[in-house]
Each structure stands twice: as C-alpha cells, then as structure tokens.
Specification:
Keywords: Ligase. There is one protein chain. By secondary structure, the chain is α/β, with parallel strands linked by helices. The chain folds into 2 domains: about 90 residues, no CATH class; about 35 residues, no CATH class. It is built from 4 helices and 3 strands. Strand 1, helix 1 and strand 2 form a beta-alpha-beta unit. Helix 1 runs parallel beside helix 2.
Length: about 150
C-alpha cells in the first residue's frame, strides 16, 4: 500500500495452501522464489502454510533449506493462522516470525483494493455482477447451507 500504483502480486507469486496442496506444488513455488533469475523484485507469498500436511511441510522445509543457499536476496512471506502456530511450518520458521497487525484503517485498505480490482471499462463481463464494477467479490453468510 506504500506504492498505490504498483500492481498486485501475479499468479506465480502466491501459493494458496490447503491440506490438499502437494509437495510438487510447494516445490515449484519455492524454486520460483529461491532460484535466482532475472524476474525482478517479486515478493513471493505462501498463504495458510499452516494447513499443509505434515509430509508436505517436512519436504517443503528440506527444499527451502537446500535452495536458500543459491539465493541470499529472496523475498518470501509465509502467512499462517495464529491459532495454528504450533503446526509444522510456523514452528520450523519460528525464528523469522513477525506478528502482523494491519497498520492502516480498514477503509483505507478497502479503497486500495478497489483501486486495483475495479474493471476500467464497464462491459458485459462478470464484473457487472459485483458492486461498482469490481472484478472480485466476497459473498458470505453467518448461517451454513444458505446457497452462497
């Protein structure tokens, strides 16, 4: 948010982890992050890394330890749920832990995201479904099973 005109991360910079994420997916992601190349200054992010299975987490840590020797200037952010801080990945990387609290007000964060997710030219795209021609939206409910 310090550079409002800089684009959001690309698809190759983010890995959204689930219990079904495979070691191969994590390996490809870590290789993109840790093997030096001329891709610029990307910041790679693993979201919900605490949800990885034990086996995948062990293999990911081994690969990280092996590959980090090839590149000392990598940029990797691993985001985990604080309620699962004792799972494998948060424990293995605990020496790098930083407790993160949003530093900007919610309204300012929403405005920043609206700037990046608004469709420039309204057309007959899926963006017309969401308010203010946004190309993403969140639909939620406090009750389960209401078809959202």
């Amino acid at each position: 948010m310090n550079s409002p005109d800089q684009p959001l991360p690309m698809f190759d910079e983010v890995l959204l982890c689930t219990p079904q994420t495979t070691a191969e997916q994590v390996g490809l992601f870590l290789r993109r992050c840790l093997i030096p190349c001329s891709r610029g200054e990307k910041i790679y992010t693993m979201l919900y890394a605490d949800e990885l299975s034990y086996d995948v987490s062990c293999r990911a840590e081994e690969l990280f330890q092996h590959l980090q020797h090839y590149n000392s200037s990598y940029r990797l952010v691993i985001l985990c749920n604080c309620e699962r801080e004792h799972s494998y990945i948060p424990s293995a990387f605990s020496q790098y832990k930083v407790h993160m609290i949003p530093q900007r007000p919610r309204a300012e964060i929403q405005q920043y995201l609206q700037h990046h997710y608004r469709v420039a030219q309204p057309s007959s795209s899926a963006a017309s479904v969401f308010r203010d021609n946004m190309c993403v939206g969140i639909v939620s409910s406090k009750r389960a099973g209401v078809g959202k």
